[in-house]
Amino acid sequence: MLCGGKKSYFAAAVCIITLTSMVTLSYLRLQKLSHLPKIIQEGSRCRGKITNSTITALKDNRTFIISPYFDDRESKVTRVIGIVHHEDVKQLYCWFCCQPNGEIYVSKAKIDVHSDRFGFPYGATDLVCLEPESCDPTHVSIYQSPHGNIDQLPRFEIQNRKAETFSVDFTVCISAMFGNYNNVLQFIQSVEMYKILGVQKVVIYKNNCSRLMEKVLKFYIEEGTVEIIPWPINSHLKVSSEWQFMQDGTHIGYYGQITALNDCIYRNMQRSKFVVLNDVDEIILPLKHPDWKTMMSSLQKQNPGTGVFLFENHIFPETMSTHMFNISSWNTVPGVNILQHVHREPDRKDVINPRKMIVDPRKVIQTSVHSVLRAYGNSVKVPIDVALIYHCRVPLQGNLPRESLIKDTTLWRYNSSLIMNVNKVLNQTVL
């Protein structure tokens, strides 16, 4: 009897498992079918107003579109970088218009809110839509229903549709410039250091800055170094200058920094060999190599298949200075002179130094600030004897005396070129 009972229980368990598997497979199949593009109109014209705004609010006012990008690394999809309310937005649809015949295809979006939301109600989001196989749409509209009038919907150009050869080796992404930014001298020094190290393009998501800073930006735009992406996020959401939600009624952290970083990666996916994700007061300083190109070549040879390289952050407090490089003409320029700050704080016990990144953008799916969330290939932490982040800012260990700090003059290796280049910019902009 006992043996027979065991067999009955086993058979029942097998039946339950089989039935559960069949139901799960059927559900997944239906889910996949629900996301396939469907024709809803034929012989129509692609209407709707094409929008060139960096941030576009949909009518629900819970969804904000940044930009769509073609992504065929796994399947033929349009990946729309956006910001959504993590609870209120339940369904969205991509409306594709296929030319020249004018068929309108609707594809249900997979709404993927990034995991690093840090408690804020709004977060960086990927809206991923399967594209129709029969055409390569150039524009897409986003709507909360598969039914409606496409004439009333804003249209967005799908970027990265055509493959390109790399136009630059290194692009630095700065997100975001806000708070009437006026640290002019340190900004110019950082950009000139980036150029010395091998950067050809600096992309800045600009919320606001001072008039003097605008003048400097204009110079760099005309030079071809800086590209400005307008970032009026506070026109749409109540932003916080903190990275973590403080129960203060704000909607999104640090001026939507994470969304801007993700957009910058996709924006430069086909035109830049590497993308550098750091703040404007941070410089990745190589210790064993003269520039980033030779450093990254070495790191890639040592770490084949790696797409993400993480560099350790070290604070060089702006409150601790040296009399070296006290250049009188620079004293009239607002901001910090980084050449005078070469003492770094020691590591703190049980505190992990955050990291910033140099990435192969084609291997990144989603990024946060200090690490990638999803990527193809490996991430590698670069040893501090190879490179570190020079981060000149207010101290984190403000009570330490000078003798407790570590003198690190790596930056001075570049002083001659840096001073000459900064003077050229200042003479054409500020002085």
Automatic annotation (TrEMBL):
A Pfam family that the UniProt record links to this protein: Glyco_transf_92
EC class name: transferase
UniProt keyword Ligase present: no
Membrane-spanning ranges: 9-28
The EC number(s) this enzyme carries: 2.4.1.-
Major localisation: membrane
InterPro entries recorded: Glyco_transf_92 (IPR008166)
Keyword set includes Glycosyltransferase: yes
Top-level taxon of the source organism: Eukaryota
Gene Ontology molecular function, alphabetical: glycosyltransferase activity
Keyword tags: Glycosyltransferase, Membrane, Transferase, Transmembrane, Transmembrane helix
Its membrane topology: Single-pass membrane protein
Cellular component, GO, one term: membrane
Subcellular location: Membrane
Family the entry assigns: Belongs to the glycosyltransferase 92 family.
Name the record gives this protein: Glycosyltransferase family 92 protein
